[in-house]
Each structure stands twice: as structure tokens, then as C-alpha cells.
Amino acid sequence: MRYIALLATLLISTISFSQKLEYNVSFYGFGDNREFSNSKMAPSQTILGERTSFEIGTTLEENHQFRVGLNHLFEFGSDIDFNQPKLTAYYHFSDKKKEFYFGAFPRMDVMDFPLAILTDTLHYYRPNIEGFLGKYTWEQGYQGGFVDWTGRQSEEVREAFLAGTFGKINMNQFFFENYFVMYHLANDASADPDVHIQDNAAFAFYLGTDLKKLIPLQKAYIKVGTLGSIFRERSVTDGYIKAWSFVGGLYGESKNFAFKTSWHAGDGHRITFGDRFYDADSYVRTDIFWKFIKAGNIQGKFNLSFHLVDGSELDQSQQLSLIYRFGN
């Protein structure tokens, strides 16, 4: 009931100052089946559920948006209150070159990081960035940064935040991508001697080229680069644990199908919010996508993935997603 009361208050407040009431509703249904033989590195599990969200708000002077709402994850087979609804409330500014978010705003479609740094399960269990994000765009590319505040220190909660930058520069048929994240997990207020501060950072740089002129596809590219990470647990590790590896990717997309191959070879990494397969010294992932629904506001996609770990263990997973959005 307190969530209903909160939403009603937000609704009344928004309507009271709105010049024009706007709304957005989205349904994100997903099925994620992971059949992994190396369960210590990446656990075998099936994630099946849906996330429903809605926002209301207004736009002032074309560039300034205000939004409030709720989103809720329902995992099939659980009780409806197993996962608590998440508040969405943010300010958004945008013009031809600049974009800025402040508040609790949806992560999906705002930024896209390599899975080695930010894994895809964040869309299931932490759909909002709670903090701020800025992005500057020019003719040759863009550069952005964000801060995601994940915990304020209390007797039970450890202070924590995730911050990072991302960008892309286009140079004729070539492009350069850069990604960086830093995660800091401090102590709680209890001063437990068995709890230690953790510091973690990761970066990736890619140099790539567009292949559309060579391959008759709607989108195609190849890129290579490097992935680095450092991890420290104070009073536990002997300084920073450093890792470095070679990474690359190949992508092709047609009207209804796409494929993507990513590889990593070198040191195994320890990246807090990254895909656990990158803990291995060698990892190759190949995805085959089928866009079985693409009509108006509805998008349906099936993804078959193959995971080759250390050149010997071949695992596979399947992902199904259905996204429906409508609003004004």
C-alpha cells in the first residue's frame, strides 16, 4: 500500500505542474537458460520472468523532461512481492549535442558496455542507474560518464558506488571505443574487523573497422583491443591484483538475423559486475540472433550462445526476450 500511496502522490504532484501529461509503459519479458558445465565460474541457472515499468511526466521548453514511476520484476514461480518495486524518478535534459540524466533512470538504451565489464543480468536485477549520467555528442562520435550510487553507509549497508566513462570516435571507416568503470565497496558503520574495503577498476579499448562495404549486410564490423583490470581487498590481498588480456569482436546483422563473436585471451580478470567467464584465461563466445518479431512497438529476439572456456569446455545458453513499449 505504501507504494500505491507514493505513486499517487507523485501522480498528483506531476499533474499539478504539467503543461501536458506524458506517459510511457514498457513490458520486458525474458527467458535465460544457462547450461554451464563449469558452475564455479558461471552458475547454471534458468532465469524466467518479466519486468513491467511505467512513467508519467512532462516536458518543459522541449529540452527538459521530468519523469516519475515504478518498475517491478516478477520472476515466474515466485510470489508477486518477492521482489520489491523500484522507484523511477529523474530529470532529463537533451539537445543536439548534450544529454544529462539525474535521479533513478532506466539503464537499458542509455549506455552499452562490453559484457566483460557490465554483465547483462543487470537489466534483470538492477534496471535503474541511481545517480547521474552525462553525454556529449559531436559529428565524429560521443563521450559520456556516469555515477551509480549503490549503497549509503549504515549499520547494515556498506557504502558503495560504481562510476565510469564510455565513448566512441569515428574516423572514416574506422572507429575507436573506450570504456572504464571503477567500483568502490567501503565498510558499513559497524566496524566489523572481518569486513574489508574493496577497490575494483576495469577498462577496455577497441580499434575497429566497418565491414559493410565488403559484406552485403545492414551492419558489420570487426574490432580488436585490450582489456585490463585491477582488484584490491584491503588487508587481504597483497596490493592490487592486476590482469591484462587481448580482446576482439566480429559482428554482422541482416534484416532478421545477426551473429556476434567475442574473444578474450591473456590473464583472467576479477571484475565485480562483469561476466564471470572472463575470470578464465581464455574465453570465446559466439551468439546467433533471430529477431522473430519486429512490428511497431513490439520486438522479440531469440539468442543462441556458445561459450568456449580455456579452449576445452564448450557450454551453451539460450535467451529469449520480448519488449513491448507504448506511450506518448
Task: Produce the secondary structure layout.
Blueprint: H1 2-17, E1 22-35, E2 45-60, E3 64-75, E4 86-94, E5 98-106, H2 122-125, E6 128-138, E7 141-151, E8 160-171, E9 174-185, E10 198-210, E11 219-233, E12 241-253, E13 257-266, E14 282-295, E15 298-309, E16 313-327
Antiparallel strand pairs: 1-2, 1-16, 2-3, 3-4, 4-5, 5-6, 6-7, 7-8, 8-9, 9-10, 10-11, 11-12, 12-13, 13-14, 14-15, 15-16
CATH architecture assignment: Beta Barrel
Order of strands in the sheet with most strands: 1-2-3-4-5-6-7-8-9-10-11-12-13-14-15-16
Number of helices: 2
Large-scale geometry: globular
The name of the CATH topology is Porin
Total domain count: 1
Q: Topology as H/E string?
A: HEEEEEHEEEEEEEEEEE
CA-CA gap between termini: 28 Å
Rg result: 21 Å
CATH class: Mainly Beta
Q: Which stretches are low in confidence, meaning pLDDT under 50 for 5 or more residues running? A: none
Judged by helices, strands and strand pairing, the structural class is mainly beta
Strand runs, count:
16
Determine the strand fraction and express it as a percent band: over 45%
Helix amount: under 10%
Oligomer: single chain
**Main sheet, how many strands, which sense, barrel?**
16 strands, antiparallel, barrel
The mean pLDDT is 91
Describe this structure in words.
The protein has 328 residues and is mainly beta. The chain has a single domain (2-327), classed as Porin (Beta Barrel). Helices cover 6% and strands 60% of the residues. The protein is built from 2 helices and 16 strands. The protein has helices at residues 2-17, 122-125, and strands at residues 22-35, 45-60, 64-75, 86-94, 98-106, 128-138, 141-151, 160-171, 174-185, 198-210, 219-233, 241-253, 257-266, 282-295, 298-309, 313-327. The protein has a 16-stranded antiparallel barrel. A hairpin with a 3-residue loop joins strand 2 (45-60) and strand 3 (64-75). It is globular and about 60 Å long. The protein starts with a helix and ends with a strand. The mean pLDDT is 91.
